[in-house]
Every structure is written in structure tokens, then in C-alpha cells.
């Protein structure tokens, strides 16, 4: 099974490289957050389980002489599928429609006259359902009596004998046995441990969020929280919250987490939100940031006091908490300009840009104060206006990939459906390798068990 109100609890930096087929895998901040999803269990699914386990012929008494020689035979069938309805008291009402054939003998000294009759009734039960934190379900089923559609009567012509009490006596006995059958079948069929393991392991598989940049998102579940079951007319609802670590990798697909063989116990909590914010990371190596700068500025010329300045080389790297752009120039100003700034996300431009820019010039030429000021103003404004690392493609591809992962049937009958409402960077971090954007993904998920 692959689901919630989000806390950005921890960012830890684990930057390392792994080599596989001479390809490098870079990992970036491991972000702890949570996924929340409502879970719907249609009562029709539980009803299907019960109907599949309970044969049409529920009870049969073929002996005239048992039960103190009662001279009575009876057969009881289901006339249509057993029906389940949730009630306001967290119970399931079970309705079993029955057809009953009965035959009764009247006589003395071993000489009997037999008459048969067929009639219908409805048998009622009440089941209290308890979802245990080891992913199993226990139930306690109690009989809730009968409703006669037509009371059974044996017609011997002049003598008409009501046999309601005789039939009810047998049915009550069988009803208590039927309660045990219901509880046994529910305990057997509603064991979600195996489904939870399958979903957990499937959800732990890394998935590609950018083919162009060969970027992978790996989600590692940590623990599970669940709200108490709520019963409605045709379904059981609950919310599942999965605390996770999400990691982003570039390069070769990372290995999946060690597969789980059994699910850990979950925790019951009173409330979980329907929507959540999943925090992932997108990463831009400084080599890529340098390429973007070269495409924008390499060999670019601009005027200073009727002369030309040309950018001959440029590179981008990190220094403390700032991005450093180092530009070599020739012409009126021959030297190296250092423009640094704090990276921030511009939501309008959909780019990572520089703020709080600072300038430093290293040159062997002696420049007048005015010329230096003009050069600074030109190159800094150009960098501020034109340099930026676009994130729109990362955002679009991430949204598409996450929605694909959120809309799958990971195992027959266990279906996840979800939608990403918006996705945007919230924090920009620097490390030795490059720039990391922590991306907030506002989404919702729904988990439905159907046809399992």
C-alpha cells in the first residue's frame, strides 16, 4: 500500500557519491514530513467476503426424531446477498434474508401425518468492529432477532398448526452459531497486514521525477498513525498518516529501502488532516548553474565610458550561504568581478535569483572611482536582471511524476488516487555540490479498498 498535515521537522545534510557503472549518484537533504490520506472501505466489500463464505444453504435438519422426537425437519437458505449497513454507534447492522422450508408430523403411537410449508423471514445481527494496531480486525457479532414476512403455518385441512415457535427455536440456535461464523470469517478476511506490507514496499520504490536531469525521489516510510474508524451507511472511513523521509538523487537510480517483511504496529491518534504538504528536494549542481550563466553572459559585451567590456569566462559556486558568480573580463576593465548573493525563489519569474548582492573587483588596471562605480552598476544590474536558475520545468515534471505515483493500483484492490494542487520551492539551500530547493507539494490522497 503507497499516504498527513506536514511538519518540516528536520533537514540533515548527507552528501556523498556512489559509483555504479561509472555513474555518480548524488544525494541531497533528507527531509522528514508526513503524508495523510483518507481510507475508504466500502461495506459492500465486507459483504462480498461474508457472502462468499456463507453458502446459500445455511442450515439443514433432516431428522424427524432428533430434538426429543420433534417430528420436524427444516432447511434454511439465503434468498439474496447478505446486506451490511453502518450505524451511528460504530456498529455494523447485518441483514440476512432467508427462505425456510419446514415439514412437521402430527400423530400418536408412531403413526404421523406430515405436512410441509415454505415461508420467508429476515434475520438480523449487530457486529461491533475493532481495528487493532497490528493491522488485524476483530468483531463481536450478536443476534438481533427475526422479522417474519409471513408466519409459518402447517395446513392439514381442518387443522392449521402455527409452527413459529418451533422454527424460531431452531433458528435462534443457528443464529448464535452464525455469529461465530461471521466473526471467524471477518478475522480471516480482514487481516490487512499483508496488504500493508505490499503497499509499504511498493511505495518505498524510488521513482523518476525528471528524466532530463535523471532525478529520482525516494520515499522511506518511518511509522504510521491512524484515526479511529468511522461508520457510515455504506462505508467505513479512517485517515492514515505516514511519517516519511523523502530524498532526492541525481544520476543512477538509488536502491530502494530494505523491504519490510512485517508491518510495525500503528498508533491511534484523534485527528489527521485530509490535505498535506509533502516536502521534497530539487537539486541544481554548480556545474549546471555555471552552464546557465555561460549561456546568458559568456562573450557578452557592455559599454563603459565609450569603451567595451567583454565577459570572457564565468563560473558559479557556493561560498558560505551565498552564491558566488566569478566573471573574468577584458577591455576597459581587465580582471575578475565577484558578484555574490543569497539565493531566493522568485515566484513570478519561477526562478532562483540572487538577493542582497555584493560586489568585489580584482584587477591589475587602475580605474577611476567613477569608472569602477559604473562598471559595478552595469555588471551587478545585468546579473540581477538576467541571471536566474529556472525552476518551472522542475516544478512541472515533479508535479507530473508525483501525480503518476499517487494514482496507481499498487496491488489488486488497493487503489491510491491523488492530486497535486500546487508545487513550489519554499527554501533554497547551498551545499558543496550545488543548490538545493526544498519544494512544498500541496496534495491530497485517497486510499480505497475495493475488489480485494
Which segments are poorly predicted (pLDDT under 50) over 5 or more consecutive residues? 1-24
Average pLDDT = 79
Overall, the morphology is rod-shaped
- Sheet with most strands: 13 strands, mixed
C-alpha-based Rg, rounded: 36 Å
Helix content: 10-25%
Number of helices: 7
Protein name: DUF4403 family protein
Signal peptide: 1-17
Keywords: Signal
InterPro entries: DUF4403
What this model shows, in words?
- It is rod-shaped, with a radius of gyration of 36 Å.
- Strands 1, 2, 3, 4, 13, 14, 15, 16, 17, 18, 25, 26 and 27 form a 13-stranded mixed β-sheet that branches.
- It starts with 10 loop residues before the first strand and ends with a strand.
- It is 21% helix and 52% strand.
- It has helices at 43-53, 66-69, 164-189, 193-203, 286-297, 369-386, 392-406; strands at 11-12, 17-20, 23-27, 30-42, 57-61, 72-78, 83-86, 91-108, 111-131, 137-148, 153-156, 159-162, 207-210, 215-226, 230-231, 235-250, 267-268, 275-285, 301-304, 307-319, 322-331, 335-346, 351-363, 389-390, 408-411, 414-430, 434-449.
- Helix 1 packs across helix 3 (164-189).
- The protein contains 7 helices and 27 strands.
- Residues 1-24 have low confidence and may be disordered.
- The chain has 452 residues and is α+β, with helices and mostly antiparallel strands.
- It has a domain at 43-189.
